[in-house]
Amino acid sequence: MQQLDLARKNVRIGRYQLALNAYKSSLITFKEDLKKEVDSAKTKQLIEVVRLVGKELESLQSLVAETKNITISPSTPETPSDPMVWAPPAKPAKTISKKPPVPKRTTGGSGPRKGFASSVSTPKTTNTTPKTTVIRRVTSQPKLDDVSYNNVMDKEEDNEEEKVFDSTMYDRELVWLVEKSVIQRNPSVKWNDISGLETTKKTLTEAALLPQLFPTYFKGIRRPWKGVCLFGPPGTGKTLLAKAVATECKSTFFSVSASTFASKWRGDGEKLVRLLFEMARFYAPSTVFIDELDTLCSTRSSENEHEASKRLKGELLVQIDGMNDETDRTVLLLAATNRPWDLDEAFRRRLEKRIYVGLPDTETRLDLLKNCLSSVKLGDDVNLNELAAKTQGYSGADVTNLCRDAALQPMRDCLDNLEDYKTAAEQLSASFLEEKPIKMCHFNSAMKRVNPSCSADTIRKYKEWEKQFGAI
């Protein structure tokens, strides 16, 4: 959906070539999702999505072809060039161009004609008299249908144009970098897609959603929280929680990391930080999510730290402090880290909510197992309650990897009976392999290969930091 939103935005502002590339990329993504989808209802929705996106792409391609075919004939008849004859004085042009080194015969004024765009391009030709091509300014845009995963038939009730950030005061390359690589509208992750973590969901709802529902109440001492830090072992759902906040609040989602602010030019990192928060205020309500916060906001050291890193951290601290100065523009800073003890004290103070996202309990692991195995066939001897009890110490990502490994075991059993894997496609069909159930022995075998990714000592360290610095 991110590429589709970007394509429509480029159409609105006249960047047709970028829109074509974004449409083609989104169409490829939807077709890949269609191949992977097993649910019949979602399959029908994706088919309709592909049809509508293809229709939009065809409309845009016809529009681009029409603009390319519009040419204007020369105002005077073509005559052979004579080096002894000087060209007539040209009409004043709106654009500044270099003078040719040798005067040649021209066909008339170089200024744009009335009713056409001011940009005039001259194609390369071997003739002495070039033809002038003028592209008509397109004032109408092709009609685009609104497509969403949840309901492809829902249409936007209001026809208000999408806001476009004014980049005249900033480096356009930096603006494009933020728009292409950072902005995600409607990440399509909801609370129901995340198992467990009910206390964390409640805190995030209070920090992000309620200030939008009751703006007059959240003022003064009740002002919204500036920042929320999610810390805990890897694979526990911290990034999914951030995306769910953006989806439930219907806000613009900015996802950044340390590499986003990396640049070989001096001062570009600070400019990107300032531009990021300016765009977040412009597209408010917004959620700024910084992944792997410890790599960007580690403890400042005057001895070994580079000057550029100090300037970047200083600018980030300033922007976080002034993030919610305008009360009508809500911006929430969400951060995730696996090493909270490495954070600088100044950043820890500005992240007013520090929530521990720990390993899933038995009930949550059972819910995860049901979700992961809902699309495959299970044997009669499979006991999910027993599996949930055996996976003590597994993170959400570990449980998913365990299910994936066990789901491949029936295919491995069939291939073990074949001498040559190259002929397996001829002897075995995909439907035949899918009918093979996953048995309890497959899960027991997978548990020997997939071990927990987080040690007990690390979990103890997280809990000690939560006891000292946690703020729920």
From TrEMBL:
Listed Low complexity bias regions: 122-133
Keywords: ATP-binding, Cell cycle, Cell division, Cytoplasm, Cytoskeleton, Isomerase, Microtubule, Mitosis, Nucleotide-binding
Pfam families (alphabetical): AAA, AAA_lid_3, Vps4_C
EC numbers for this chain: 5.6.1.1
Amino-acid positions noted as binding ATP in the UniProt annotation, renumbered to this chain: 232-239
Function recorded in the entry: Catalytic subunit of a complex which severs microtubules in an ATP-dependent manner. Microtubule severing may promote rapid reorganization of cellular microtubule arrays and the release of microtubules from the centrosome following nucleation.
Family: Belongs to the AAA ATPase family. Katanin p60 subunit A1 subfamily.
Protein name as it appears in the record: Katanin p60 ATPase-containing subunit A1
Native organism: Bursaphelenchus okinawaensis
Gene: KATNA1
